[in-house]
Structures are given as structure tokens and as C-alpha cells.
């Protein structure tokens, strides 16, 4: 199958992998690097408020094990609860990454559910786009607000499948389909994936990619799970492109020919 059918295009750049991974929750940076290598991911997201990429001098620097020459670093605003905090955090990230514009915006509503605060998210997105950031945005699975974010100029919308870190999988596939069917920018599932089948389902629905962290980092064997997620995303994409057979709820269809049978 042509590689062009598999490549993900974000902000005008092509990526072979449609799996994006986070860098938190691992035992150490060595495990982080090993898991990301196993996943095949090219875009790795970094929580600027929790991970050192140069802002804390004298501490281990994630960029030493995940150099920007090998990976696209996607700074994110995890832990921000207001538009002002999110904008301030990404301005710092751009400075640390020498003008890097691609970023992941998330503005949380509360520390219990980590559900997105959409009014603050929309406010932050508008400011960041005007300042030249290429914004991939974590959002509710609301097709109207997803469209609003696209109209603001976000380069990708990233609706949650279920709550961050819950591992509950895709709880509302219908809303995701509404977003996918109407979007003109990439749609990536962000949050809630628990295992490989969840990632495959997201891709079969027509998502352009999947972002995950906890599902890999908190697996019993993170490297093996990273490899499984890589395969699941690829298989789900191929199944989407192939087009599944129609469901037949009230009749069977034998897989073998029914004509020319012996004795008939």
C-alpha cells in the first residue's frame, strides 16, 4: 500500500507514524526513550510545567534523550487551568525550543476529571494563533466547539475519547464521527485509550491519529504495549481505508459458495 496513504500531515509537515506519544509517567528517561522507539512515534508531547527541557538548569534534560533533530517535540500545557497560564507556558516553550511553533494546547476545567475548560481553551487558542503558534488542541468531543477551534485556525483538533488517564476507551463514537465528518483539519483522539483495541477503533472510525501516554507508561510492560499500539494504529488505518463490510443484523451470508454443491 502506498506510504502516502499512511502519512499524517500536520501544519504542512508529513509524518510516517499516526501515533503520537507522551513522555511522562515512565520510570526514567531511559525507559521513555525505549518506549518511544518501540512505538515508532515521530511526534512526542512534553508537559512544560512538569518536564525539564532546559528551563531548570542542572537537572536532567529530556532533550538529551529525545533530541529535536530526531523527533518533533510537541510542548503542551498540561496542568494549566486558565487561558493566561496556557499562553504563558507556550511562550516559554517557544523560547526554549528556539522559535518552535507547533504546540498542544490544553486548558483543564478541574483537577478531578481533567475535562477541558472549553471557554478558556477557545480564548487561549485565539491568542496563540494570532501570535503565530500552530495549535493542536485538546477539546471536548463537541462537534460545534471543534468547528469553532478549526475556524480560529487550529491545525488539528484532539477530542478526548474518555477522561485523561482513565483507560476507558472510546465512550462516544458517534460524537467523534460527527467531528471527523465535518473537519477539514486532522482529528486525533487524545485521552482515554487503554489498550490496543481502543487505538484500532479510533482509527477505524476515521481519526487521523491517536495520542496517548498513560496506556503505554502504566502498562505492565511499557515497551511491549508501545509496540502493540504501533500495530493497532496501523491496522485500524488500513481497515478504515479498506472499508468494512456492511452490518447485517437479521440475516446471515455464508462465506462459501452455495451453488454447485455435491449432491445438489
Automatic annotation (TrEMBL):
Q: At which positions is 1-deoxy-D-xylulose 5-phosphate bound?
A: 165, 191-192, 213-214
User: What is the predominant subcellular site recorded for this chain?
Assistant: cytoplasm
Q: What is its EC number?
A: 2.8.1.10
Q: Do the record's keywords include Nucleotide-binding?
A: no
Query: SUPFAM superfamilies, alphabetically?
Result: ThiG-like
Enzyme's top EC category: transferase
Q: Which InterPro entries match?
A: Aldolase_TIM, Thiazole_synthase_ThiG, ThiG
Q: Which reactions does this protein catalyse? A: [ThiS sulfur-carrier protein]-C-terminal-Gly-aminoethanethioate + 2-iminoacetate + 1-deoxy-D-xylulose 5-phosphate = [ThiS sulfur-carrier protein]-C-terminal Gly-Gly + 2-[(2R,5Z)-2-carboxy-4-methylthiazol-5(2H)-ylidene]ethyl phosphate + 2 H2O + H(+)
Q: Where is the Thiazole synthase ThiG domain?
A: 10-257
Q: Which residues form the active site?
A: 104
Q: Which Pfam families match?
A: ThiG (PF05690)
Q: Which GO terms describe its cellular component?
A: cytoplasm
Biological process GO terms, please? thiamine diphosphate biosynthetic process
State the compartments where it is located.
Cytoplasm
Q: What does this protein do?
A: Catalyzes the rearrangement of 1-deoxy-D-xylulose 5-phosphate (DXP) to produce the thiazole phosphate moiety of thiamine. Sulfur is provided by the thiocarboxylate moiety of the carrier protein ThiS. In vitro, sulfur can be provided by H(2)S.
Q: How does it assemble?
A: Homotetramer. Forms heterodimers with either ThiH or ThiS.
Family membership? Belongs to the ThiG family.
Name of this protein = Thiazole synthase
- Organism name: Candidatus Accumulibacter vicinus
State the taxonomy lineage. Answer: Bacteria, Pseudomonadati, Pseudomonadota, Betaproteobacteria, Candidatus Accumulibacter
Q: What gene does the UniProt entry assign to this protein? A: thiG
Amino acid at each position: 500500500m502506498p506510504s502516502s496513504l499512511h502519512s499524517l500531515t500536520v501544519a504542512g509537515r508529513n509524518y510516517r507514524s499516526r501515533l503520537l506519544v507522551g513522555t511522562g509517567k515512565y520510570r526514567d528517561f531511559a525507559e521513555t526513550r525505549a518506549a518511544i522507539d518501540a512505538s515508532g512515534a515521530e511526534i512526542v508531547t512534553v508537559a512544560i510545567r512538569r518536564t525539564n527541557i532546559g528551563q531548570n538548569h542542572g537537572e536532567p534534560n529530556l532533550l538529551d534523550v529525545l533530541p529535536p533533530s530526531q523527533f518533533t517535540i510537541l510542548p503542551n500545557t498540561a496542568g494549566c487551568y486558565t487561558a493566561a497560564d496556557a499562553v504563558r507556558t507556550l511562550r516559554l516553550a517557544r523560547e526554549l525550543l528556539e522559535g518552535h511553533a507547533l504546540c498542544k494546547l490544553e486548558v483543564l476545567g478541574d483537577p478531578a476529571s481533567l475535562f477541558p475548560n472549553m471557554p478558556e481553551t477557545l480564548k487561549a487558542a485565539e491568542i496563540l494563533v494570532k501570535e503565530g503558534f500552530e495549535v493542536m488542541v485538546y477539546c471536548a468531543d463537541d462537534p460545534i466547539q471543534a468547528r469553532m477551534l478549526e475556524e480560529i485556525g487550529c491545525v488539528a483538533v484532539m477530542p478526548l475519547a474518555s477522561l485523561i488517564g482513565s483507560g476507558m476507551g472510546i465512550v462516544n463514537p458517534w460524537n467523534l464521527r460527527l467531528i471527523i465528518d465535518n473537519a477539514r483539519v486532522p482529528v486525533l483522539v487524545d485521552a482515554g485509550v487503554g489498550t490496543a483495541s481502543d487505538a484500532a477503533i479510533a482509527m477505524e472510525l476515521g481519526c487521523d491519529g491517536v495520542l496517548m501516554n498513560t496506556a503505554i507508561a502504566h502498562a505492565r510492560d511499557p515497551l511491549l504495549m508501545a509496540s502493540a499500539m504501533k500495530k493497532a494504529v496501523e491496522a485500524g488505518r488500513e481497515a478504515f481505508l479498506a472499508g468494512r463490510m456492511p452490518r447485517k443484523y437479521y440475516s446471515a451470508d455464508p462465506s462459501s459458495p452455495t451453488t454447485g454443491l455435491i449432491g445438489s
